[in-house]
Structures are given as structure tokens and as C-alpha cells.
Amino acid sequence: MAGLDGPRFGPLAGGAPRQLVVVLHGLGADGADLIGLAPNWAAAVPHAAFVAPDAPAPCDMAPYGRQWFSLQDRSTARIEAEVRAVAPVLDAFLDAELARLGLPDSAMALAGFSQGCMMTLFTGLRRRVAPAALLGYSGALLGGERLAEEITVRPPVLLVHGEADDIVPVTAGRMAEQALRAAGVPVEALYRPGLAHGIDEVGLAAGAAALARGFGVTAG
């Protein structure tokens, strides 16, 4: 499986980055789809560099975009097997980006939407050193049954989910919140009335605040 790469943004303040935010897209999209979140968050963390890697495989459900794992077979066992296969590729990318920027593991945050949220939670909770924060939008917790034995770190997690989501039902977000709390992970959960499978301004603002808290950035 080839290495990852994707579009980058920042730091907004210029100069060498002090933090790294990695943003993971959903099924059928690519890094260009989510790097657009970076300007919204950069005001809160102006010394952070952002990168949105393209997922390693072409989407097999559409003639465009990429995927972290296939949904042709939606059995839990098959999906989890694919996630476990791709997680080391994402891990290697995170390590390489931190090394390239000369940053410690603790100076990184992960954010993801839909499939990207699932990869964020799976990978971020199994890192050697806790990320500064994990932000998960409209996703689910995969591998939850084995989380208690596999979790290595407990970074603060923000979960945001639309209550009208018809792609990944909000029940998946609520189950993720419950499982993470049971595993001792600090969670902030935000459920948005009327929001479908997407990210709204309230969710964006919550993400900016979570990144600032995680990195210890104060206003002004």
C-alpha cells in the first residue's frame, strides 16, 4: 500500500509550525474536500500546520474520490479487518509528518469526517503518545469490542453528529460516546438538531475550541 499525501495549509501566523492538525476525509472525497476546514480553525490555532491526506484506495462505489476502506461488504468483521490493515499506513504518515516538521507526537491533533472520523478514533486511541485532541464528525467507533484491551492513550475527544444524519445514524455517535466514556476517555459530545450528514458552523466552532484547548492556546 503506497504512502499517503495530500494538500496542506498554514501556519496562518507564518514561520515554523508549533502544532500539526491532520484532517481525514470521508468516503468518495479526497484531501482537497476537507483542507477547506483549515482556514476556519487556523484563527484559533494560528501556529498549526494542517494536512489532509488522500485515502490510499480509489472509491469502489463511485467513479471519483478515495476511500479508507471498502463498504462493498458491510459486515462488521470485514470492515474492521480493512481498518486494521490501513491503520499502520496512516500511523506511518503521522510519524513522517511529525518528523518532517520537527514536532513531538503530543503536538498533533486528528480530525475526521465520516470514514475519516472512524479512522481518527481507531488510530488516535492506539498511538504511542496521546494526540492533543481527536475530533470526530458524523462517524462511529470501530473495534469498540476490543478497545479496552487495545487502547494505549486517552486524549480528549470531541464528537459532533447531526441528529438527521441518514448516512451514519446519530445512534452510532451516541454509541461511540458511551463506549469511549466507559473506556475512561474524556468526551465532549455535540448533537445537532436537524443536521444531516455534514458539518455546520456550530460544529466548526466547537472544533476550533477543542483544538485550542488541546494545544493549550489562549485567545490573544
Automatic annotation (TrEMBL):
Upper classification of the organism: Bacteria, Pseudomonadati, Pseudomonadota, Alphaproteobacteria, Acetobacterales
Q: Where are the transmembrane segments?
A: none
Q: Which organism is it from?
A: Siccirubricoccus deserti
Its signal peptide is none
Q: Name one Pfam family in it.
A: Abhydrolase_2
- Domain named Phospholipase/carboxylesterase/thioesterase: residues: 16-205
Extract the InterPro entries matched here.
Answer: AB_hydrolase_fold, LYPA1-2/EST-like, PLipase/COase/thioEstase
Q: What does the record give under GO molecular function?
A: hydrolase activity
Record has Hydrolase as a keyword: yes
Protein keywords: Hydrolase
> Mind telling me what this protein is named?
Prolyl oligopeptidase family serine peptidase
Zinc in keyword set: no
Q: Report the sequence similarity comment from the record.
A: Belongs to the AB hydrolase superfamily. AB hydrolase 2 family.
